[in-house]
Design brief:
mainly alpha
């Protein structure tokens, strides 16, 4: 999809999604937060915010 907004940016939604995917995977591989299990095979990050102050370790 290359609507007017994306044409202004010189990109399309496919390329934007591809870049986001690579950025997310590279972040998981670098693992700057030291999270257990993040690597090149576990990188599907998502926004998560629940009602409790809890984290998984």
């Amino acid at each position: 999809i290359r609507d007017a907004y994306m044409r202004e940016k010189g990109i399309d939604y496919f390329e934007n999604s591809r870049r986001a995917l690579h950025s997310q995977r590279n972040y998981a591989m670098a693992n700057p937060g030291g999270w257990r299990g993040y690597d090149g095979d576990l990188w599907g990050l998502t926004a998560s915010d629940g009602p409790l102050d809890a984290t998984l370790e």
